[in-house]
Design a protein that fits this description.
Layout lengths: L3 E10 L2 E11 L4 E5 L6 H8 L7 E6 L4 H9 L2 E4 L11 H11 L4 H14 L15 H12 L6 E5 L7 H16 L3 E5 L3 H7 L2 E6 L2 E6 L1 H8 L3 E6 L25 E4 L4 E5 L2 H10 L6 E6 L2 H9 L6
Parallel strand pairs: 3-7, 3-8, 5-6, 6-7
Antiparallel strand pairs: 1-2, 1-4, 8-9, 10-12, 10-13, 11-12
Helix pairs in contact: 3-4, 3-5, 5-6, 8-10
Amino acid sequence: MPILLARGLTKTFGDFEAVKGIDVEVAKGEAFGFLGPNGAGKSSTMKMVAATSPRTGGELSMFGLDPDVDGAAIRARLGSCPQQDNLDEELTVEENLHVYGRFFGLPRAVIRERTEELLDFAQLTERRRDKVEPLSGGMKRRLTIARALVNDPDVLLLDEPTTGLDPQARHVLWDRLFRLKRRGVTLILTTHYMDEAEQLCDRLVVMDHGRIVAEGSPRALIQEHSTREVLELRLPVDGHDESDGGHTELAHLVEGVGERVEALPDRLLIYADHGDAALETVTDRGLQPVSALVRRSTLEDVFLHLTGRTLVD
């Protein structure tokens, strides 16, 4: 039986339908991601999965249990890492773990043992007696995840786990999460970072306006919704700046090159299986690019193609 199973899952707030009948299935030990722009329905879905917000319609089960009936039993087997750290900054690092362990009614001896394990896991042993407030953002994030593991959960829910962290802290956190996955912990996460999704997720869904618009592994999604390579092309704009339209007025010059052309104010994106061949075609037409870059397609190309480049508030 899947760890998470949803069929036709919906969530409404008054007249607004945040989640519009989605189907999701997550297997034990899997790292599964929800991607989508703001307002796509990711957070509403995660709250229903966490048994903290009731569903409006459809079917939903965690561990084979109904969140509307067995919410407490489900939450006891979950670890939750919210988007914003909600640590008690007046307590020390180890005191945060002790207090959280007591919330679950764990014996003091078990809490002490798990605190030692989690401090080592989060690389915070040397900071155990430090107050939380002066810690760096990366340290606080590692402590938040360690705290979410104090009850030895079967599933760890992560809402934007590395938002606001510098690249070094993000990579350290990725390593910690990868180790959890190897231990058999199921990870369910939301993220805005496409490279994070590619690093961590076995499978993911892309959500937009409350619906799932694509599902699969990162590699499969790239193969299905993009080309092998992308040619990023900058052409002379003859005095037109970006506010005048820039490259959006030059797209016709490369029409038919590659499978798809996307015009941005500052460059043209030509999607083709062979970027160098596409560049040769461009130069054969007599065009002289200011710059040209051939790169591999990424999950970000898929995400923007499916959800658009317009900012959603």
